Structure formats: structure tokens, C-alpha cells
Amino acid sequence: MSEDLVFGLYIFALATFVGYQVISRVPPLLHTPLMSGTNAISGISLVGSLVAAGAHHDLVSSILGFVAVTAATINVVGGFMITDRMLRMFKKGPSPSAKAKG
Amino acid sequence: MQATLISLAYLVSSVLFILCLRGLSSPEQGRRGIFLGEIGMLIAVLATLVKAEIISYEWIVAGLLLGSLIGTSISLKIPMTKMPERIAFSHAFGGLATALVGVTEYHKLRGLFSAFVPPPPGAVEHEISRLTMGALGFEVFLGSLTFTGSIMAFGKLQGVISGAPVTWKGQNAMNIGAFFATIALLSYQIAFPHDAPTWMFMFMCASGLLLGVLAVLPIGGADMPVVISLLNSYAGLAACATGFALKSNILIISGALDGSSGFLLSMMMSKAMNRSFANVVFGAFGTAEGTAAPSAGGPAKAFNEATVEDAGAVLMASQTVIVVPGYGMAVSQAQHAVRDLAAALEKRGTEVKYAIHPVAGRMPGHMNVLLAEANVPYDSLFDLDMINDDFSRTDAVLVVGANDVVNPGAKTDTSSPIYGMPVFNVEQARSVIVLKRSMNTGFSGVENELFFLSNTMMVLGDAKKTILSLVNEVKGGGGH
């Protein structure tokens, strides 16, 4: 068991716990935005893709890295934009008293 | 020093990502949350770009530009009814990106083609630890599996691939065999990271790609909410594995957030169908477009077929109406018409509420987004637990393209495949109006006894057309 593995597992376990706590507070109403939002966040693999594409190792690496950067960017940019577009649509109704009048 | 600053920047990003998800606990804070997430991502990308390992920028800039272009155009144009497809599509890209990062890293460390062409001296860093090898293996396997699995899910949602569960003999045995072969190869590579032949790594990619296809092929359309959530979870785990391989904490954290979100959602979806994971993944049942299954031998059961006028009269006589939307509403794009009908009824003083089942539609929360798009205020949308006791006090229930979630047999008929699934108590309402294309059974192929109850009116035809005529009925009808 290497030091790195144990350290990584610490981070993983704590982040999973935080994720579980935070996400169980998301109401079913917002489950679709939650999914596209976490999708945008998991586009963080962009960080790895950028290094792959820019390390200038050889042509194979650069091309694979380029495809990875493109795919991850689609998720990041598209994910945040569409989540925002969805959230903008959720509006509260008029107050119950105003509704009863109709 | 620079490395420390980059790590600190990643820490800030990770915190912002958690705050982003925290914001999604209410619609009011949601947009602010997403904004924080965007800032977090920007910080992470900028911090990465100044890393010493990055020496050339042309491929990066090209990828960023192309990705932004595609991402922007998709998210601006896509209609809300296509959200499940768009989510499946983005899981595919997420899986692809992580798999490729893994392959590139392996290529750098071991030389992907060294089994065939000896690499030039110095081109390959022969330093690969067991941890890196193991993490890369998981990353590439899960990434490829998510990639093809999501493409299959996308194809099924789009109707390019049959939505019907495809099953054949020995299917599970084959999947399990491929899975264990992969695990065996990965274990060998972890045990001998320097000497394991590179074809083993390639085999793992191939087996991930194949298993993605095979695992989703047998799953039917109605189970898509679970499949999409599971793929979400896999994409997250793949990103996590990338974090272990590249020793990047921000990847581990973000992957864990995504993974736990997907896992939690799949748990909720399975629970809402009263099925275990194993059952969804291994036990495909039913046919896609079921034909009106005649009850064994007996005569076809009688049902009350009603006209639009009858249904309109019932609605106009009602004080309280609950709308139960299902996938059929998305298919016939009826959400705007539903909103118009509700508005017309509300104008007459009728109270209109919506009952949303967790698995209505093809992904978690699908119906909420559709109705929000049609300007239905979210405070009239209610979950199963919140509204189920109200049906007995309701004058009329309007079922728009929902089937299994309103099947009373799920509560009483122990032989039903959906027995035990939590359903709406619609049959307790004074009258039930069901809008349905035809008398065919739903995706699960289960007959719905609700349709044959004496207080149920069946209005057959396209839901959107029916509702538009209902709007005219209600508007034309005399006031109180």
C-alpha cells in the first residue's frame, strides 16, 4: 500500500461523503439540472486532457489529447450553459391569494 | 512555489464545485450555484494552463475552441424534450475524455505500440508504479464502458436502436466472463507493471467498449432513468480513477461528487420502481410497444371510451384537478397544451396541481423540466409522497401519457412484474380521465386495470390534440 494510494482514498472517501450529503438535499424537482450540473463538473477531466494535449510527447499523444480536450470542453461549456438555461425556466407561481382570485 | 499555487487554485475550485451543487438544493439559489461552478472551472483550467508540463498550446486551443463551439450550439438549440438524449450524449463524451486521458498517459509511460514497434530510445519513461497502473486500468475500462454504454442509451432514446430489451441466451454469462477476464488482466498488469505486454492494456479498452454495448442492449426504454443515472456514476468513477493515476486531488473530488450523485439517483430510481440494481441490469422484461395483451382466453375487457366533450364536462364540473404527466406527454410535446388547459381551468376557479413520479419520463426530473419550460410554476409540481394522500379528495385526475405509475395493480396484484412499485392513488379520485394513444400496454407490457374501472374515462388519440380540444371546450363552456 503506497502512501499516495492511502492519501487518495482519504480524499475520495471524504469527497464522497460530502457529495452524498449535499446531493441528498437536492429536491426531485431539480434532478435533471443536478445531472447536467454534475456532468459539467465531471468535465474537470479537462484538466488531465489539457496536460495530455500540451505535453508535446509525440503526435499520437497530441491527437488523443486534442480529442479529449474537445470532448471535455463540450461537457463543461455545454453542461453549465444548459443547466443555467433550465434553472432560468423554474419560476414560482403567483402567491396563493392572487391565484384564488384568478 | 508555482506547484503550490496551482494546488491552492485547485482547492478553491473544489470548494466552488461543492457550493455549486449546494446551490441546487433550491430553484432560487440554483443559478448562483452554477455561476460559482463556472468560476471554479475557469480557475482550474487557468491553473492547469500554467503548469510546467504544458509546452505547446496549438492542440489545446484548437480543442477548447472546437469543444466550446459544439457545446454552445448544442445547449442553445436542444429542446427540453430531448434532455435525456443530451445527457446520455454528454456522458459519452465524459467517458471518452477520461478514457483518452488514460490511454495517453499509458502511452507516455509504457509506449502503447511497443509490442509491435520498438519505441525510440528515451520516448518511453519506464517508470510506472502499481498504483498508477491500477488507476489507469480502471480509468480506461470505466471510461470506455461509459462511452459505448452512453452511445447505446442515446441510440435507444433516439429510436435509432430498438428501445426493446434485446436478450439472448448466455448473455449474462458472456458479460460476466468478459468482466472477469478484464479484472484478471488488470490484476496481472498491477502485479507486473513493467513487464506486462501492452496488448493487455489494449484488450482492456476493447473489453470496456464491448461491455458498454452489451450491458445496455438488453435494457428497455422504461428503465432508462436508472441506466442514465448509473452511467453518470460510472463517468464519475472514471474521473476519480484519473485522479488516482495523475495524482490530482481535484479530479478525485469532482469524480467523487459526480459518482455519488449518479449513485444516489440510481438508488432513488430503482426504489421508485421497486427493483434492485441487479434486476434492472440483468433482468430485462417486457416488450417495447406492447400490443393490447388479451387476458388469457377471456373476452376483451370493457372500458369507458369517452369523447373530448365528456372529458371537458367532467373537468369543468371539478373544483380540484390533478394532472399526472408521463413519457407520453414528452413524446407528443403536449406540455404547453397542458399548461393552457390548466390556465383555462384556473380561470374558472379550479385548483390544478401536478403529480410527478420519480421515474416519469426517461431521466430523473424529466417531467419537471418540461413543465417548467411550459411556464408551469414549480410550486404546483408535487412529488409522490407529497400528493398521494390528496387523490381521495380530488374531483378529477387527468393522466397524460403515463401508464405504469398509475397502475393500481402495483399495489394489489402480486403476480404483476411491477408489484410493489410505489404508484399514485389516482383511482381514489372521483373521476379519472386517461389520455392515451391506444389501448396498448406500456413499456413494461403490463396491463393496467385502472383503464377498466368504472370511474375511468379513456380518451384515445394524440395527447396534444386532445388537450388542445379540451382547452377549447373549457374556454367555450359557460362560467360559474
How would you characterize the overall build of this protein?
The complex is a heterodimer of chains A (102) and B (480). By secondary structure, chain A is mainly alpha-helical. Chain A has a domain at 28-88. Helix content of chain A is 77%, strand content 0%. In chain A, helix 2 (31-42) runs antiparallel to helix 4 and helix 3 (46-54) packs antiparallel against helix 4. In chain A, 62% of the residues are buried. Chain B has 480 residues and is of the alpha/beta class. Helix content of chain B is 57%, strand content 6%. Chain B is built from 17 helices and six strands. Chain B has helices spanning 2-23, 27-49, 58-77, 83-110, 130-158, 171-191, 198-216, 224-246, 249-272, 277-282, 308-316, 327-331, 335-347, 366-373, 384-387, 409-412, 463-476, and strands at residues 320-325, 351-356, 381-383, 396-400, 431-436, 456-460. Chain B has a six-stranded parallel beta sheet with strand order 3-2-1-4-5-6. Chain B starts with a helix and ends with a helix. The model of chain B is unreliable at 284-298 (pLDDT under 50). At the A-B interface, helix 1, helix 2, helix 3 and helix 4 of A face helix 1, helix 2, helix 3, helix 4 and helix 8 of B.
Spell out the blueprint of helices and strands.
The complex is a heterodimer of chains A (102) and B (480).
Chain A: H1 3-23, H2 31-42, H3 46-54, H4 59-89, H5 96-101
Helix pairs in contact in A: 2-4, 3-4
Chain B: H1 2-23, H2 27-49, H3 58-77, H4 83-110, H5 130-158, H6 171-191, H7 198-216, H8 224-246, H9 249-272, H10 277-282, H11 308-316, E1 320-325, H12 327-331, H13 335-347, E2 351-356, H14 366-373, E3 381-383, H15 384-387, E4 396-400, H16 409-412, E5 431-436, E6 456-460, H17 463-476
Parallel strand pairs in B: 1-2, 1-4, 2-3, 4-5, 5-6
Helix pairs in contact in B: 1-2, 1-9, 4-5, 4-8, 5-6, 5-7, 5-8, 6-7, 8-9, 11-17, 13-17
